[in-house]
């Protein structure tokens, strides 16, 4: 749903205008996320939804939506929250990452690629395995399918990451493999 008309259909779903479709809290949050990431919702709307669904799941969905706003400011806040905030729970970190990493917003991720590669070695060496792998795996710029992303991955593997822990290298090599497959598919699809 990229057009205003398609966004209006999402809004109609959210507003219950389709007979026979039960919209529970999870589906409401999903529809709101779809609107937020397309710039078709506001902070006031997601705050109101949190009042409506004042549960842990609602709070995490709210965090995800905040990170999904299609602005550099939202991406910056989510990236920092995920990579620097030691006070948050793993679930909160995951929500920030999920909101940050929206496929239709890949143009907003370009400025974070170098920062990602600058922090992954320290992240792996200083944070718990669960925290570090969620950051390393889920913030990898997998939606930036380009030879530039591949070159930066190779530069890290042959530079700062050359002598890194084998497990960390494996995570980056697996991400690189997925990127190379995507590049091959894209080349065939042209």
Would you kindly provide a written description of the structure presented here, covering whatever features stand out?
With about 190 residues, this protein is mostly helical. It has two domains: about 1-105, no CATH class; about 110-190, no CATH class. It is about 70% helix and about 0% strand. The protein contains ten helices and no strands. It has helices at about 5-15, 25-35, 45-50, 55-70, 70-85, 90-100, 115-125, 130-140, 145-160, 165-190. α3 runs antiparallel to α4 and α5 (about 70-85) runs antiparallel to α6. It is globular, with a radius of gyration of 18 Å. The two termini are about 25 Å apart. The mean pLDDT is about 95.
- Give the integer mean of the pLDDT values: 96
- The dominant shape is globular
**Using only CA atoms, what is the Rg?**
18 Å
Domain tally? 2
Q: Which regions contain 5 or more consecutive residues with pLDDT less than 50?
A: none
- Specify the helix fraction band: 55-70%
Q: Helical stretch count? A: 10
The main pleated sheet reads as: none
- Provide the succession of SSEs: HHHHHHHHHH
- Structure classification: mainly alpha
Please report the total strand number as a whole number.
Answer: 0
Oligomer: single chain
Percent in strands:
under 5%
Distance N to C terminus:
23 Å
């Amino acid at each position: 749903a990229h057009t205003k008309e398609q966004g209006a259909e999402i809004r109609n779903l959210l507003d219950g205008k389709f007979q026979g479709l039960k919209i529970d809290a999870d589906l409401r949050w999903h529809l709101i996320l779809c609107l937020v990431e397309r710039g078709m919702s506001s902070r006031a709307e997601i705050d109101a939804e949190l009042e409506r669904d004042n549960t842990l799941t609602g709070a995490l969905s709210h965090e995800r939506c905040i990170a999904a706003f299609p602005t550099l400011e939202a991406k910056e806040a989510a990236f920092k929250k995920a990579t620097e905030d030691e006070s948050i729970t793993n679930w909160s970190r995951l929500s920030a990452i999920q909101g940050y990493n929206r496929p239709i917003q890949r143009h907003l991720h370009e400025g974070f690629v170098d920062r990602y590669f600058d922090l992954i070695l320290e992240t792996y060496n200083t944070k718990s395995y669960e925290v570090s792998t969620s950051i390393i795996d889920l913030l990898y710029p997998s939606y930036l399918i380009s030879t530039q992303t591949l070159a930066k991955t190779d530069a890290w593997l042959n530079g700062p990451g050359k002598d890194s822990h084998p497990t960390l290298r494996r995570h980056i090599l697996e991400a690189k493999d997925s990127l190379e497959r995507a590049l091959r598919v894209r080349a065939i699809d042209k």
